[in-house]
């Protein structure tokens, strides 16, 4: 087992990464202060792992709420079911909430924990590659609003993250690829050495070789933790982690939540950011080709949705969080491993990229 | 104008108290970083003060959302109307939210600000005595849930509080008395000198003498700010501020939100806490009589609702936040100005108090 520490002063917490961590009661128990636990999971994960996690908590006041699976249920209304359960079962403000599932469950359980009685402890048990490398690190929690993704949420850190790599064996191929998309992102942002490693090992990841997966998770979490430690509430460098997300969120919203997986949408989003960077003369054509190639080999989309026009992209991007004073701030690339935050680019080039990627 | 500073490290903020502060554009403007503002108010306050506040912000991108007035609308559903407005008008994460109204508006606008795009700045402009002395100080924000009051919320500090005492002239007598209830609370908790002052000046407050009101607001805010500075997230002494609230919340929930005003419910709640303290032998009979007398002179209820039984009180109190490990933790009195947190009392005496106060 590997242990990474996310350094955030009194909100620091460990990330445990390894095989079969959900067979170790002590690992979970030592992060639960009182013996009151609510497990939040979904109807895909519950049949696979809920009993296993419950069995780690014998003798605890332990209950579970099982939500419907899917990004389209990441809403205030569904969030309220967690509060209904907490209150109808009379959980006190000493309850620990466990998020058992992917990124949607982590976001919702984390946000519920941030707000229940103005804040109770929570623990992340991510069961997808995407959530193990991304949404379990950094404390972002949120639900969606019909007019925008992740618009209602909080920065709220867990007590610990338990990333059991054995849970990845039950992922379908599309979900796995969606996670690989986020892994590639860390290489692109500021770790070109890792990007090289990924080019050499993309097939091993797709074949779920345990050592390759564990290494990719550890390195991604370390890369992300380093950025988050510098800028917890995204006033500056943390925004780099949004590479591909402004384009990607527009695709997710435009196509309806859940039709494109998050990792798929940001794969196309990152290719769009690379395309724009190349048009601006910031990124070499050879680098753009390498970027397109690795996403394609991972089984991820690198072209925009048929159904979306350039105008629709613009409208949806304008409502995204990364807008300051009316200019769409984007994360662009000056090279592989050299992402930059910029609102100082030629908007005509952005139009060209959108037209190139429109359906 | 008086200025108090609430000392909370990088979350410190000033409270301005005085006549006609809403005629001073500079006071408000200096706390707004970008010229994007959403005013959250209700349909009672909007006709009185919305244009006045808008006029302070000429040249700003300024919009308003007017919610229905009343505690029964302090829900997740109504909260969502604030998000609808923020998103449909494309407010960025640089927006400043202004809460213009009483405690309900402050709680909802503050909670909306805490969660919109994971946190945007907000400013409190409390227009009731209750909110000027209580809910605008300390950063508690929340909405209610059908199973309990203030169960979903956040600790979130404003940029500043502007308590314009001129706005109290439009309060009805019942609302004014409700605010006086909270003022008396500060005397009871840890300021017996202030309690003495209140006994001498209760009629001046009821007659809305400006100097008496300003002094009462300033001293209440100072007393509260001192407690909050010691314990921002209510791990310890801050719980003293809940004197009367466990009983009071049971009354508010049991009678339906909005039928008893908050200050009315906690007035009876404080008398119940004093009654129990006397039964336990912790509080002298003479002190109990003084407490009953001052609430009565203020025009506040000192007996429980006709419709509530002792059992109903117990059931509702058990779901309150102040329950730890199954014991109802209460704020009790060892004297006027000497509140204590206790779960070490004879539960039979609590039963006696509930039976004495049941309808």
Descriptive terms for the model:
homodimer; 13 helices; alpha/beta; Rossmann fold; 4-stranded parallel sheet; 359 residues; 18% strand; 3-stranded mixed sheet
Account of the 3D structure:
With 359 residues, chain A is of the alpha/beta class. Chain A has two domains: 2-170, Rossmann fold (3-Layer(aba) Sandwich); 173-357, Dehydroquinate synthase-like, alpha domain (Up-down Bundle). Chain A is built from 13 helices and 13 strands. Chain A has helices at 25-29, 46-55, 76-88, 103-115, 129-135, 173-190, 192-206, 210-230, 245-255, 262-279, 285-297, 310-318, 347-357; strands at 2-6, 13-18, 36-42, 61-67, 96-101, 122-126, 140-145, 148-155, 161-164, 323-324, 327-328, 330-333, 339-342. In chain A, the strands form five sheets. A four-stranded parallel beta sheet of chain A has the order 4-3-5-6, with helices on both faces. Chain A has a three-stranded mixed beta sheet with strand order 1-2-9, covered by helices on one side. The first copy, chain A, has a two-stranded antiparallel sheet with strand order 7-8. In chain A, helix 4 links the parallel strand 5 (96-101) and strand 6 (122-126). The longest helix of chain A has 21 residues, at 210-230. The first copy, chain A, is globular. The relative contact order of chain A is 0.11. The A-B interface holds A 34, 76, 80, 83-84, 87-88, 90, 92-94, 114-119, 140, 142, 145, 147-148, 150-155, 233-234, 318-319, 321, 323-325 and B 34, 76, 80, 83-84, 87-88, 90, 92-94, 114-119, 140, 142, 145, 147-148, 151-155, 233-234, 318-319, 321, 323-325.
């Amino acid at each position: 087992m590997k242990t990474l520490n996310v350094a955030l002063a009194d909100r620091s917490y460990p990330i445990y990464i390894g095989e079969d961590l959900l067979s170790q009661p002590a690992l979970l128990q030592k992060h639960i202060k009182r013996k009151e636990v609510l497990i939040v999971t979904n109807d895909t994960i519950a049949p696979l792992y809920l009993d296993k996690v419950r069995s780690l908590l014998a003798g605890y006041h332990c209950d579970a709420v099982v939500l419907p699976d899917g990004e389209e249920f990441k809403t205030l209304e569904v969030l309220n079911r967690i509060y209904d359960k907490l209150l109808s079962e009379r959980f006190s403000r000493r309850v620990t909430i466990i998020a058992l599932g992917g990124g949607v469950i982590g976001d919702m359980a984390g946000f519920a924990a941030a707000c229940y009685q103005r804040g109770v402890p929570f623990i992340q048990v991510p069961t997808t590659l995407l959530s193990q490398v991304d949404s379990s690190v950094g404390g972002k929690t949120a639900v969606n609003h019909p007019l925008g993704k992740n618009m209602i949420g909080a920065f709220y850190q867990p007590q610990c993250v338990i990333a059991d790599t054995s849970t990845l064996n039950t992922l379908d191929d599309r979900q796995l690829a969606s996670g690989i998309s986020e892994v590639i992102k860390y290489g692109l942002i500021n770790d070109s050495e890792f990007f090289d490693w990924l080019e050499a090992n993309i097939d091993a990841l797709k074949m779920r070789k345990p050592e390759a997966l564990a290494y990719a998770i550890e390195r991604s979490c370390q890369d992300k933790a380093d950025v988050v430690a510098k800028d917890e509430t995204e006033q500056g460098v943390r925004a780099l982690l949004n590479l591909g997300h402004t384009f990607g969120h527009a695709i997710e919203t435009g196509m309806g939540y859940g039709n494109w997986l998050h990792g798929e949408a940001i794969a196309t989003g990152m290719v769009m950011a690379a395309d724009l960077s190349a048009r601006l003369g910031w990124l070499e054509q050879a680098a753009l080709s390498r970027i397109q190639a690795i996403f394609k080999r991972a089984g991820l989309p690198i072209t925009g949705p048929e159904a979306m026009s350039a105008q629709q992209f613009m409208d949806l991007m304008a409502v995204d969080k990364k807008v300051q004073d009316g200019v769409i701030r984007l994360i662009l690339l000056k090279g592989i491993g050299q992402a930059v935050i910029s609102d100082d680019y030629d908007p005509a080039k952005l139009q060209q990229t959108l037209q190139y990627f429109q359906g």
